[in-house]
Design brief:
Blueprint (H helix, E strand, L loop, with lengths): L45 E6 L5 E8 L2 E8 L2 E14 L2 E7 L3 E9 L2 E9 L2 E9 L1
Antiparallel strand pairs: 1-2, 1-8, 2-3, 3-4, 4-5, 5-6, 6-7, 7-8
Length: 134
């Protein structure tokens, strides 16, 4: 849940506004399903979540890069801390592995800095919800 969207590029500073061929096409076609929302790293992010079907909110604050440390709070109350590993699995998803709890969180970005998650505490417990991040 510590996701940071990729920034978009601006104009090409080497491109000229005059003399370009009218038959040129973009080198990368626009995506019909959105952009590359999942970040390569979640270090330095604050992830705010809401457990589906409840009034419970939580927050994970990360320091590091693809690996680092985190603190976890629920409904504004600090509960624990540990280390994490972030693995970007595709353009709109990633997996956050938390230790020492040995749990994972699948983050699916539906837009930049927000989406849905599925938390896995063990083989028999899966918690869905929504998240936002800075």
């Amino acid at each position: 849940m510590f996701l940071n969207g990729c920034g978009g590029g601006g104009e090409d500073p080497t491109a000229s506004s005059s003399g370009s061929s009218p038959n040129q096409s973009p080198t990368t076609p626009p995506s019909s399903s959105g952009g590359d929302f999942a970040p390569n790293s979640i270090g330095g992010k604050t992830v705010n979540g809401h457990i589906g079907g409840t009034s419970t909110t939580w927050q994970i604050v990360t320091t590091g890069g693809t690996n680092g440390s985190y603190t976890y709070s629920e409904n504004g109350k600090y509960l624990n801390n540990g280390t994490y590993t972030w693995t970007k699995t595709n353009a709109s998803s990633g997996v956050l592995a938390l230790s020492p709890s040995d749990t994972t969180m699948e983050l699916d970005y539906t837009a930049a800095n927000q989406g849905t998650y599925l938390y896995h505490a063990n083989a028999n417990y899966n918690e869905p919800g929504t998240f936002t991040t800075n």
